[in-house]
Write a structure and sequence with these properties.
The structure is a homodimer of 116-residue chains. Chain A is an alpha+beta fold and 116 residues long. A three-stranded antiparallel sheet of chain A has the order 1-3-2. The first copy, chain A, is globular and about 50 Å long. The first copy, chain A, has five helices and three strands. Helix content of chain A is 53%, strand content 12%. The relative contact order of chain A is 0.14. The interface between A and B is large, with 40 and 44 residues. The structure holds a DNA duplex (30 and 30 nucleotides).
Chain lengths: 116, 116
DNA sequence: TTATGAGGTATCCGTCCGGTAACCGGAGAA
DNA sequence: TTCTCCGGTTACCGGACGGATACCTCATAA
């Protein structure tokens, strides 16, 4: 009883599917969290560390550099003492927020249900 | 001698953040793709491999096992010869689709813009 | 007889992540 | 003066994760 191969139901994903395209920006540990907490005003490195308690300084610093390279965040060094650094979303970064919002919404529902 | 800050003895309250809560289900390489291609009808292992050409068998089988453990997909062995296995989304899995849809939508916009 | 296909597992190896520690230059404390 | 702290970053190390390839079982097809 041979199985017939069912055709792919989905539009040709090939030369870089939209999911992959967007995940290239959202991928990497803690990336959605970083973008999420940058929504709204700019935020300093140590503020982000407080926002995301379980991220290590190394990973946060790496993530911010990656996101800067990809054009998702901007980095501005403030002439304070000691110098502090402010990060903010670019227009591209703000476009990613709705996707993270959708994830957060689902997370809220999951939590509410687990409480019951 | 000042009092040293005591380290919290219990692991930090993990599921505080809705984003983390939901990312626990979506995290891991290729996870959004797998859920995306399972939306709609059930799909077999080799069909998923064709849907997601760049995933390796090891990672796909690992992802499917993880998702089954988390209650996102079901696994059904069909009594064919050779036996085939069908995977499908659970109700929980279907709840995750809107978030992936949002990511896909943004990916479409990014691609369209890049073409220009 | 060999090949093929389904649904994986075994193995190797490179990259990523997390934790710790150190760094730097200036400001305040001892 | 010397100590220490502070914000941001980097170097080092060990472990987990992901990619590539090979292999396995069973049964039909060429």
């Amino acid at each position: 009883m041979p199985l017939k191969r069912r055709k792919s139901r989905v539009p040709p994903p090939m030369p870089a599917c939209p999911l992959t395209e967007c995940m290239a920006l959202l991928g990497g540990a803690w990336t959605p969290n970083v973008i999420w907490y940058l929504n709204g005003e700019a935020r300093r490195f140590s503020e982000l560390r407080a926002d995301i308690p379980r991220i290590s300084a190394k990973v946060l610093s790496g993530r911010l550099r990656d996101l800067e390279d990809k054009g998702v965040v901007t980095r501005k060094v403030m002439a304070t003492s000691p110098p502090s650094v402010e990060y903010a979303l670019t227009a591209l970064g703000r476009e990613l927020v709705p996707a993270i919002q959708a994830i957060v919404d689902i997370g809220h529902r999951l939590k509410r249900r687990k409480a019951a």
